[in-house]
């Protein structure tokens, strides 16, 4: 029989074990790190890879996250996340907070709970040092010159609102590079980025005073109100202690505008306006302009590809041995490398090489011209193989019959062989043309605002992916279906209907 003392001892032990388990669980929960989403590809001075140790990141937001972690007594761990997907990733639960120069805007307020602001930003216009056409922002607005900026930012919205020719980039380095190369006339970006990439560059200069003040804040899920209050309290303590100012001074981005942070309590203190109305008419207008760019690139690229492809096919079939080898190398090379790599090499690499050779800015084509060349070269390899197959499919007896009539080989090819081969190659060439319409989306990597890029910009700014996606799909169908219909009519007319 078990004594009462043994029972009490067992109960005591169980209680102690349970208490220790609860304490351990509570400690583990309290120490669970917050996942901070940001894009290290964005560049300085926000967050970027440390050049001395690429396994680490640095930037003023990295320092801010470390200071905030101490202030709220909870670990904050960086997680790489694409900038344009931060809001979606936050609401999906991939990350707990987003801090990456996110501006407080009415459309974002519909989907996230912003913390109290941690930085007052302004937009800074930058031009080349030898620029004489405009000396102020007002002069620049009147001229409506091509301008570059980051996509999905206050600067891009400001340029769109003022009807400026706009090139958008995913990184902060590229627009300033293109400005120095003469591809752009100006760059409009947040002041911290301008300080990091333009202030110390002797080839560039600031134009006028900063404009359009706005506010960075940390984005959290609306349901995480307790966490948001904790973050707000942590930011309050950093501002009151002067730690926030010390971080900003370290990175050279402290200015008089930041004095206003002390009095601010929430995002609503800065933003007292409602979200802009969603208009499908405006969406179709913007998508229509981007569709024109898509058509322009597709048509010009396909014309270049067909011309080069036919030339390469003829060289491979009828040229001397060195020319045949060259044609084979051409096909294998351009068919074997990604078109994205070709875009980067032609757009960013070629001007750099020419500069290194002392040729200066003699060749710095626009992004649309580079896109046409890149797609033309890439597709020429495929067209060459299609033409070669079509030409060789024409029976050898056609050559012999033409020769018996006294026709030269050149005339035979032009009058007899090529027309018959055209009927054979038309279907695959049409397929390539339709595919090219869709492949032009890759051109957004060099700041071409084509149809898919415009969809991404509109959808991510409004978070209305379905409606705008449907409108974009309709435009792609409007472009591609008539092309297929035309191809079928031509095949029927030439005696080879489907």
UniProtKB/TrEMBL annotation:
Transmembrane segments: 290-313, 325-347, 353-379, 465-487
Keywords: Amino-acid transport, Cell membrane, Membrane, Signal, Transmembrane, Transmembrane helix, Transport
GO biological process, any: amino acid transport
InterPro entries, per database record: AA_ABC_transptr_permease_3TM, ArtM/GltK/GlnP/TcyL/YhdX-like, MetI-like, MetI-like_sf, Solute-binding_3/MltF_N
Domain ABC transmembrane type-1: 291-487
UniProt subcellular location: Cell inner membrane; Cell membrane
SMART domains named among the record's database cross-references: PBPb
Record carries keyword Protein biosynthesis: no
GO molecular function: transmembrane transporter activity
First and last residue of the signal peptide: 1-30
SUPFAM superfamilies per record: MetI-like (SSF161098), Periplasmic binding protein-like II (SSF53850)
CC annotations in GO: ATP-binding cassette (ABC) transporter complex
Highest taxon listed in the record's lineage: Bacteria
Location (main, coarse): membrane
Stored PROSITE patterns: ABC_TM1
Membrane topology: Multi-pass membrane protein
PANTHER family for this protein: L-CYSTINE TRANSPORT SYSTEM PERMEASE PROTEIN TCYL, MEMBRANE COMPONENT OF AMINO ACID ABC TRANSPORTER
Similarity section: Belongs to the binding-protein-dependent transport system permease family. HisMQ subfamily.
NCBIfam families: HEQRo_perm_3TM
Protein's name according to its UniProt entry: Inner membrane amino-acid ABC transporter permease protein YecS
Organism: Caulifigura coniformis
The gene coding this protein: yecS
């Amino acid at each position: 029989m078990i004594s009462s003392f043994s029972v009490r001892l067992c109960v005591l032990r169980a209680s102690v074990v349970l208490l220790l388990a609860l304490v351990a669980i509570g400690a583990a929960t309290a120490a669970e790190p917050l996942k901070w989403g940001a894009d290290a590809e964005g560049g300085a001075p926000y967050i970027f890879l440390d050049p001395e140790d690429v396994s680490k990141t640095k930037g003023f937001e990295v320092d801010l996250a470390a200071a905030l972690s101490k202030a709220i007594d909870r670990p904050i761990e960086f997680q790489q996340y694409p900038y344009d997907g931060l809001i979606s990733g936050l609401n999906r639960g991939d990350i707990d907070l987003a801090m990456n120069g996110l501006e407080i805007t009415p459309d974002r307020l519909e989907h996230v709970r912003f913390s109290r602001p941690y930085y007052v930003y302004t937009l800074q216009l930058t031009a080349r040092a030898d620029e004489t056409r405009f000396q102020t922002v007002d002069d620049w607005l009147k001229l409506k010159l091509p301008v570059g900026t980051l996509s999905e930012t206050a600067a891009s919205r400001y340029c769109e609102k003022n009807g400026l020719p706009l090139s958008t980039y995913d990184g902060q380095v590229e627009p300033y590079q293109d400005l120095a190369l003469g591809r752009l006339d100006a760059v409009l970006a947040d002041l911290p980025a301008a300080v990091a990439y333009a202030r110390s560059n002797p080839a560039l200069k600031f134009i006028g005073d900063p404009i359009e003040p706005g506010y960075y804040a940390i984005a959290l899920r609306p349901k995480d109100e307790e966490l948001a209050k904790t973050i707000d309290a942590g930011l309050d303590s950093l501002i009151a202690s002067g730690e926030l100012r010390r971080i900003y001074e370290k990175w050279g981005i402290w200015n008089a505008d930041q004095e206003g942070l002390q009095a601010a309590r929430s995002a609503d203190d800065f933003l007292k306006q409602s979200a802009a109305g969603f208009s499908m008419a405006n969406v179709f207008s913007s998508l229509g302009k981007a569709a024109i760019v898509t058509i322009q690139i597709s048509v010009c690229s396909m014309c270049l590809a067909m011309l080069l492809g036919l030339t390469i096919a003829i060289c491979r079939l009828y040229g001397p041995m060195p020319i045949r080898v060259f044609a084979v190398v051409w096909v294998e090379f351009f068919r074997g490398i990604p078109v994205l790599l070709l875009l980067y090499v032609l757009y960013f690499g070629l001007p750099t090489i020419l500069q290194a050779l002392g040729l200066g800015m003699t060749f710095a084509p626009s992004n649309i011209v580079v896109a046409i060349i890149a797609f033309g070269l890439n597709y020429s390899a495929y067209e060459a193989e299609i033409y070669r197959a079509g030409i060789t499919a024409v029976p050898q007896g056609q050559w012999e019959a033409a020769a018996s009539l006294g026709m030269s080989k050149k005339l035979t090819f032009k009058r007899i062989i090529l027309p018959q081969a055209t009927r054979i190659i038309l279907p695959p060439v049409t397929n390539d043309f339709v595919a090219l319409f869709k492949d032009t989306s890759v051109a957004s990597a060099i700041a071409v605002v084509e149809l898919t890029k415009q969809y991404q910009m509109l959808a991510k700014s409004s978070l209305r992916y379905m409606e705008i996606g449907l409108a974009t799909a309709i435009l792609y169908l409007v472009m591609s279906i008539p092309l297929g219909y035309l191809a079928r009519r031509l095949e029927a007319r030439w005696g080879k209907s489907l």
